[in-house]
């Protein structure tokens, strides 16, 4: 026995502590994993020892290893043991490990409840402190419910150290156990006026976070915060208060509850802006002023001074040489942009300059701003500038970002700002020349979109796509997913669908049948195959109408020769389509041999226009009358069989499970009644946002061709690459076109002016063109997307049912009802226990530490007992 | 909301990591590697705010050590930037014998009145 102890202590001398471990890892750079697994084995040995100091050391090392990325959840029970050490330094290690690795899925967490409660009521403030800090990282709904009362009392502890932590952890408790919010709220309010600034700041933080999600419940606190804002001198607290003010304001704008709040705030905020030297505070104030002005923007002319002040300050920030300030300035500008675009547009030059900055974050911010600042006039020059950047930014993720941004800018609000779609398509084609991009599908989607929606542009689009298909060998070399070869997808589809616009249909068909096509990804090949047939059909029709029977038969023969390479494809879709089509064409060949005209029927295969479908169309398909989706299709198996098969319960306290009741069959009348009730409710609820019913397709085929103004193309300068469009020419063309338009309009205006005299025409006679004056070269014809018939207009599927913040949407102004008091743990008496077993220990307050295995067993039984009690309740 | 707090050295090794939201262990290392790559590739005159996926990184370099804080969109970036400096100053005052001398030098560079 004595020898064992000596041996034990000698072993302990060779234990590594944390420093040794770190040093060891640094020394074993090559075989780090092996060394660490060795260390973990040692740690496992140490954890088996009885000595708490040894265990604490082991857990300490484990925490470090966890930080490096090794999983330590197997040691959860040991961590709990260390947490229950009496010495503070060991306890601290245990709690740290717990906060790093426990989460809601850890099943031993329930064993900690008692330990944490003991620590919370400990006379040593550091024990309490460490328990509070650790708990905040792994609090679960059960823990929250059990400990909420204790933490609430701690909020009024004598020591500010504890009060601070208690206030902060209440936020986590609220999230997990929302019923605790109402009882705890009065105390939280008190803490706002706590003499200690740390506690005050903590309270401000908690309310700030709560208000962020449910601002309407905290509007009553607004005057209190106003007072705090004017009296506080601590910058950190001020930042939070001002942030909170902006949240409340933002909400206050939606309801007419506190309109005066905004006006009152502007004064102190502007004072702060002028007086503070702290950049962070300045930034926060500017943000809030913007929020105020957004909320007051309806009809408040004298606040333009404040907007000017803000914009001025932001300009100073952006011009500053410190990159951080530039970034912040741009960020705040983009917020102003949403509501006051005019005040920002005057600084366009500055922002375009920022685009050339070498700092990527700043460029991204500037790009974002551009998004809001494009107009019909400047879209082309901005995109031109961006294209130059794209060329420069070879091989970076920034280029991808640019690409997405260009497309976003151009396509926003249904292509509102594009006046010449030919230009846009040429831009898209130029973008296809980029290598290594991951946004091929985006470009492809755009091409498809434009080709479908703008009918006037189809001819041009088709010619460009045909050229792309011809040069497919350049693009097909990059076959990664979402690579640029996706563009071929769009190209093939467009050529097939709008094949009537193709000039050299034969050539395009041959381009699609080349053997190199089989190296493309499967989904692209499938599109190729399908569209080949469409092309073939239109060629067939052409030839038959022209009476060229041999040419028709030649084409058929060509198809039959080349299709088998697709039939052998590994991709299922391609194989299926190709074999179907091969059979069809062989049949056509037979008919052709008999000199039967087949073209009409083949064309009929592809009759009808394909229009874009709304993304939510599938969900909106109305359930037809008489269909009950909840009714059983087959009767479920009866429960009596499953009960017979249940094995005899080993623990006789396990309750018999009640057989689940079958869902009552809801008949149709009930459904209809419920639907009516729901609609009533929605109509009465002022907060329910109803969207307008989807309009029918009002945009019929516009007489688009006549509306296009005739543009003169200057052919004296030969185009650089035959067939490849240069987007620059469109810029020039556009300017010429607009100039002509302007001249015409001026003539009209002069006539109007002569007719009407003596009236105010100052606004009309300004020569600065407003947006609406520029008539686009091509109209977007199809703006609305298809929806199923009788689709319901409302949109109910955006809300996440598991959102924890939704549960916190509680009205705090009503007085507390009796039922809402927090549950307090009481002693469990023997008489109240109804369960047959009395092995469950009575009182939980015994703080003796039995041997750990016994404790574990008792804990488990105790918890089982608790669970049973709850079930009975 | 602060999502995480990292201290990383120039070679990319994590010296300290603290997550305020539960993130799976294997995802943590991946996250850290990417974040570090982003921050190390930036030069001295670029701003300290990096946009990464759906949150922002605010980082500061102190000699061979990078301190990176991940925040979401609602947080004031400048305030977090100052917070990092505050943290370093506290560490410096508390563990003055442990923190390297270079940090003391830097304290003069980043003057205290900047807050």
Automatic annotation (TrEMBL), chain A:
Residues 628-702, 734-873 are annotated as: Disordered. It is a peripheral membrane protein. SMART domains: BLVR (SM01354). One of its GO terms (cellular component) is presynaptic endosome. SUPFAM superfamilies: ARM repeat. Gene3D superfamilies: Leucine-rich Repeat Variant, Longin domain. InterPro entries: AP3_complex_dsu, AP3D_dom_metazoa, ARM-like, ARM-type_fold, Clathrin/coatomer_adapt-like_N. The keyword Phosphoprotein applies. Residues 666-813 form the AP-3 complex subunit delta domain. It is found in: Cytoplasm; Golgi apparatus membrane. Residues 645-681, 734-746, 801-845, 860-873 have a biased composition (Basic and acidic residues). Keywords: Acetylation, Coiled coil, Cytoplasm, Golgi apparatus, Membrane, Phosphoprotein, Protein transport, Repeat, Transport. Residues 747-765, 846-859 have a biased composition (Basic residues). GO terms for biological process: anterograde synaptic vesicle transport; Golgi to vacuole transport; neurotransmitter receptor transport, postsynaptic endosome to lysosome; protein targeting to vacuole; synaptic vesicle budding from endosome; synaptic vesicle membrane organization. Residues 783-800 have a biased composition (Acidic residues). Signal peptide: none annotated. Belongs to the adaptor complexes large subunit family. Part of the AP-3 complex, an adaptor-related complex which is not clathrin-associated. The complex is associated with the Golgi region as well as more peripheral structures. It facilitates the budding of vesicles from the Golgi membrane and may be directly involved in trafficking to lysosomes. Involved in process of CD8+ T-cell and NK cell degranulation. In concert with the BLOC-1 complex, AP-3 is required to target cargos into vesicles assembled at cell bodies for delivery into neurites and nerve terminals. This is AP-3 complex subunit delta-1. It comes from Calcarius ornatus.
TrEMBL record, chain B:
It is a peripheral membrane protein. Keywords: Membrane, Protein transport, Transport. Gene3D superfamilies: 3.30.450.60. It comes from the Eukaryota. It is found in: Endomembrane system. GO terms for cellular component: cytoplasm; endomembrane system. Residues 1-109 form the AP complex mu/sigma subunit domain. One of its GO terms (biological process) is intracellular protein transport. The keyword GTP-binding does not apply. Belongs to the adaptor complexes small subunit family. Adaptor protein complex 4 (AP-4) is a heterotetramer composed of two large adaptins (epsilon-type subunit AP4E1 and beta-type subunit AP4B1), a medium adaptin (mu-type subunit AP4M1) and a small adaptin (sigma-type AP4S1). Component of the adaptor protein complex 4 (AP-4). Adaptor protein complexes are vesicle coat components involved both in vesicle formation and cargo selection. They control the vesicular transport of proteins in different trafficking pathways. AP-4 forms a non clathrin-associated coat on vesicles departing the trans-Golgi network (TGN) and may be involved in the targeting of proteins from the trans-Golgi network (TGN) to the endosomal-lysosomal system. This is AP complex subunit sigma. The gene is Ap4s1.
């Amino acid at each position: 026995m004595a020898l064992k102890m000596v041996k034990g202590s000698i072993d302990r001398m060779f234990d590594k502590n944390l420093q040794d471990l770190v040093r060891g890892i640094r020394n074993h750079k090559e075989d780090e994993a092996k060394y660490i697994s060795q260390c973990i084995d040692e740690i496992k040995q140490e954890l088996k020892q009885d000595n708490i100091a040894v265990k604490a050391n082991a857990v300490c090392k484990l925490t470090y290893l966890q930080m490096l990325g090794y999983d330590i959840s197997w040691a959860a029970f040991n961590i709990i043991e260390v947490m229950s050490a009496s010495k503070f330094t060991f306890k601290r290690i245990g709690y740290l490990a717990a906060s790093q690795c426990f989460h809601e899925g850890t099943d031993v967490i329930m064993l900690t409840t008692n330990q944490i409660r003991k620590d919370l009521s400990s006379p040593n403030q550091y024990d309490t402190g460490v328990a509070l800090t650790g708990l905040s990282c792994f609090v679960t709904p059960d823990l929250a419910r059990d400990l909420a009362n204790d933490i609430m009392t701690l909020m009024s502890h004598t020591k500010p150290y504890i009060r601070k932590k208690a206030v902060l952890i209440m936020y986590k408790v609220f999230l997990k156990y929302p019923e605790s919010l109402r009882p705890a709220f009065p105390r939280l309010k008190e803490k706002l006026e706590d003499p200690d600034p740390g506690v005050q700041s903590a309270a401000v933080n908690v309310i700030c976070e709560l208000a962020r999600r449910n601002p309407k419940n905290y509007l009553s606190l607004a005057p209190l915060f106003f007072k705090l804002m004017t009296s506080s001198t601590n910058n950190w607290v001020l930042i939070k208060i001002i942030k909170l003010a902006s949240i409340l304001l933002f909400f206050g704008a939606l309801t007419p509850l506190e309109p005066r709040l905004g006006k009152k705030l502007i004064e102190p905020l502007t004072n702060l802006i002028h007086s503070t030297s702290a950049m962070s505070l300045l930034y926060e104030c500017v943000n809030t002023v913007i929020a105020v002005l957004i909320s007051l923007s309806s009809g408040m002319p004298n606040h333009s001074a404040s907007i000017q002040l803000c914009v001025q300050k932001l300009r100073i920030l952006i011009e500053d040489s410190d990159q951080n300030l530039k970034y912040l300035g741009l960020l705040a500008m983009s917020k102003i942009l949403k509501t006051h675009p005019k005040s920002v547009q005057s600084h366009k030059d500055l922002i375009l300059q920022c685009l050339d900055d070498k700092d990527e974050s700043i460029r991204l911010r500037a790009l974002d701003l551009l998004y809001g600042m494009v107009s019909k006039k400047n879209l082309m020059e901005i995109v031109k500038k961006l294209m130059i950047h794209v060329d420069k930014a070879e091989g970076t993720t920034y280029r991808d970002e640019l690409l997405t941004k260009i497309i976003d800018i151009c396509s926003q609000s249904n292509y509102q700002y594009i006046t010449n779609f030919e230009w846009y398509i040429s831009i898209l084609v130029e973008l296809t020349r980029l290598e290594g991009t991951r946004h091929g599908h985006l470009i492809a989607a755009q091409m498809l979109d434009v080709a479908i929606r703008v009918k006037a542009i189809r001819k041009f689009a088709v010619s460009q796509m045909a050229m792309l298909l011809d040069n497919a060998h350049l693009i097909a070399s990059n076959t990664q997913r979402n690579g640029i070869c996706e563009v071929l997808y769009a190209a093939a589809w467009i050529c097939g669908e709008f094949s009537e616009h193709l000039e050299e249909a034969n050539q395009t068909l041959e381009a699609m049948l080349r053997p190199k096509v089989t190296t493309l990804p499967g989904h692209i090949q499938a599109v190729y195959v399908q569209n080949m047939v469409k092309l073939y059909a239109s060629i067939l029709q052409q030839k038959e109408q022209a009476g060229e029977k041999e040419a028709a038969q030649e084409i058929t023969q060509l198809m039959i020769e080349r299709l088998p390479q697709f039939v052998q494809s590994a991709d299922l879709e391609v194989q299926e389509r190709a074999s179907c089509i091969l059979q069809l064409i062989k049949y056509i060949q037979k008919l052709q041999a008999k000199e039967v005209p087949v073209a009409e029927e083949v064309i009929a295969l592809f009759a009808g226009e394909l229009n874009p479908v709304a993304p939510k169309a599938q969900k909106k398909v109305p359930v037809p009358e008489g269909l009950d989706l909840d009714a059983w299709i087959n009767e479920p198996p009866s429960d009596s069989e499953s009960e017979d098969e249940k094995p005899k319960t080993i623990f006789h306290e396990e309750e018999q499970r009640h057989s689940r009741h079958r869902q009552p069959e809801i008949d149709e009348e009930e459904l209809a009644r419920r639907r009516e009730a729901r609609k009533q409710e929605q109509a009465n609820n002022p907060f329910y946002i109803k969207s307008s019913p989807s309009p029918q397709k009002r945009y019929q085929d516009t007489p688009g061709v006549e509306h296009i103004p005739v543009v003169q193309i200057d052919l004296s300068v030969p185009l650089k690459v035959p067939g490849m469009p240069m987007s620059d020419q469109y810029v020039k063309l556009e300017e010429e076109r607009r100039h002509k338009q302007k001249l015409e309009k001026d003539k009209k205006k002069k006539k109007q002016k002569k007719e009407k005299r003596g009236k105010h025409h100052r606004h009309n006679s300004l020569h600065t063109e407003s947006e609406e004056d520029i008539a686009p070269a091509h109209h977007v014809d199809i703006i609305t997307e298809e929806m199923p018939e009788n689709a319901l207009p409302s949109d109910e599927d955006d809300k996440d049912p598991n959102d924890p913040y939704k549960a916190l949407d509680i009205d705090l102004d009503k007085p507390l009802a009796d039922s809402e008091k927090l549950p307090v743990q009481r002693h469990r008496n023997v008489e109240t226990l109804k369960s047959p077993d009395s092995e469950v220990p009575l009182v939980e307050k015994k703080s003796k530490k039995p041997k750990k295995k016994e404790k574990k067993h008792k804990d488990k039984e105790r918890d089982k007992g608790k669970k049973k009690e709850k079930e009975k309740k | 909301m602060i999502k995480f707090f990292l201290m990383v050295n120039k070679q990319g090794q994590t010296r300290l990591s603290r997550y305020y939201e539960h993130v799976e262990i294997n995802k943590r290392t991946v996250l850290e590697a990417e974040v570090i790559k982003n921050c190390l590739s930036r030069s001295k005159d670029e701003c300290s705010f990096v946009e990464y996926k759906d949150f922002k990184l605010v980082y500061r370099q102190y000699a061979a050590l990078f301190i990176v804080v991940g925040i979401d969109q609602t947080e004031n970036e400048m305030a977090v930037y100052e917070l990092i400096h505050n943290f370093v100053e506290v560490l410096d005052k508390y563990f003055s014998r442990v923190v390297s001398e270079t940090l003391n030098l830097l304290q003069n560079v980043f003057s205290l009145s900047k807050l």
